[in-house]
Write a structure and sequence with these properties.
The protein is an alpha+beta fold and about 400 residues long. Helix content is about 40%, strand content about 20%. The chain has helices spanning about 10-20, 35-45, 60-65, 70-75, 110-115, 115-120, 120-130, 130-145, 170-180, 205, 215-230, 235-240, 245-255, 300-310, 365-385, 400-405, and strands at about 5, 45, 90-95, 95-100, 185-190, 190-195, 230-235, 260-265, 275, 285-290, 330-335, 335-345, 350-360, 390. Helix 11 (about 215-230) packs across helix 12 (about 235-240) and helix 11 crosses helix 13. The termini are far apart.
């Protein structure tokens, strides 16, 4: 048996950052759809989330890598704008709810076909116990689509204590059909899905592609994850598209056997790792970026801690008195390290980007971090159409950051 290559932890970190698009300088001129496509070709997945206290999360990974760009450019790729537009992204359960290139739709059909077993419990319940409602909702989409959940005319139940989603059965039926691929998202308005038939939303050429065998589709999804990560463990690779663990193990082993993944040992990593053979190995990374909690660089928290020595947990669902850092906290990437975290809120009424808390990571230079973070926050505020940055006196970095912002 061949001894695996050995990588130092800094080498692995630089490989990972370069694979995610942080090894290149941001464009200096106008950013357009070509730049967005290049990022999407690297990372493949933009996770969606309903929280809008700072910025809709699907817009942030592109900003983190490209700097200021017109957000409507992403909307055009998802055909959310009026006019004759070629849809290039569609919405589906890829990592979580995500925007992914339409060309990946055939690779996700195996998940659609498993809806009756894999969809969330409420969806399975409606499909099992009320198939007539599912058929009725499907007929409504075919007749009147695109429709909203409210168009199903099923009354909304009273919200139960602790319940996150107050979904009525019409909405649940639509979500089951969405998981099963029988309907898709034509667009979102105020973040509300409008459902329609795939043949009225997705390119005909994509729908005409034969459905690949499950194993072939999953292998390709692992290849995409491996390219996007550069170097990764098997759980890292499986998590990218949320493959069942047994399937992830099998597909990774097959790609290793075929020579498409190279086993490596990374200093300090307890699990075996795998290198994408074409991954770049830069000697230095000079990135500067605020990272959405749902950015593919950091969305798998175990990997984030392993790569950067940075323990990160989002506290949106943590009761306020129990939060350590704040409600919507973004890590700050500087060079090759995560050096700080900031709790951000876009105060649209006042027209400012509020830093509700700013915290330095151990060992980072507070003056240098504050100056770089202030510059990035100023660019971010301008991109969001806000007039400035306001720093609240919370966190050990806040005093230095407040001075740097002034």
């Amino acid at each position: 048996m061949t001894t695996p290559q050995r990588l130092t932890a800094p080498q692995a970190r630089r490989i990972a950052l370069a694979a995610q698009g942080f090894g290149e300088a941001r464009p200096t001129g106008r950013v357009d759809a070509r730049h967005l496509r290049r990022v999407l070709a690297r990372i493949a997945v933009l996770q969606i989330d309903s929280v809008n206290v700072f910025c809709r999360t699907q817009y942030m990974p592109l900003f983190s890598r490209l700097g200021p760009y017109p957000r409507e450019a992403l909307d055009r790729l998802t055909a959310h704008t009026a006019g004759p537009v070629r849809r290039e992204l569609f919405e589906y359960w890829a990592h979580e709810a995500s925007l992914v290139p339409v060309e990946l739709q055939p690779l996700l059909r195996w998940r659609m076909q498993r809806a009756s077993a894999d969809a969330w419990g409420g969806m399975r319940r409606v499909a099992r116990d009320n198939p007539g409602l599912v058929d009725e909702v499907m007929a409504l989409v075919a007749q009147r689509g695109p429709i909203r959940a409210g168009d199903t005319s099923v009354s909304r139940p009273a919200r139960r204590p602790g319940e996150m989603w107050n979904w009525h059965d019409g909405k649940v039926a639509l979500e089951y059909l969405f998981w099963a691929g029988q309907v898709t998202a034509a667009r979102r308005i105020n973040f509300e899905r409008h459902y329609d038939l795939p043949e009225r939303v997705l390119p005909a050429g994509v729908l005409a592609v034969p459905t690949p065998p499950v194993e072939d589709a999953q292998r390709e999804l692992v290849r995409i994850a491996a390219r996007a990560y550069g170097v990764a463990t098997e759980p890292d690779l499986g998590d990218y598209f949320r493959l069942p663990r047994a399937d992830s193990k099998a597909r990774v082993a097959e790609l290793v056997e075929a020579g498409e993944l190279v086993p490596v040992d990374v200093d300090g990593w307890r699990a075996p790792a795998y290198l994408w053979p074409a991954a770049r190995r830069p000697r230095r990374i000079t990135a500067r970026a605020l990272l959405s909690p749902f950015d593919s660089l950091i969305w798998f928290r175990e990997r984030t801690e392993r790569l950067f020595g940075f323990r990160y947990r989002i506290e949106i669902y943590t009761p306020a008195p129990q939060r350590v850092y704040g409600y919507y906290v973004l890590p700050f990437l500087l060079g090759e390290s995560l050096v700080a975290r900031v709790d951000l809120k876009s105060d649209r009424q006042a027209g400012v980007l509020r830093v509700q808390g700013a915290y330095l990571d151990d060992g980072a230079d507070p003056n240098h971090v504050a100056a770089e973070l202030a510059a990035e926050l100023a660019i971010t505020a301008q991109w969001l159409g806000l007039n400035g940055v306001s720093v609240m006196p919370r966190g050990d970095l806040a005093p230095d950051l407040a001075k740097a912002v002034c």
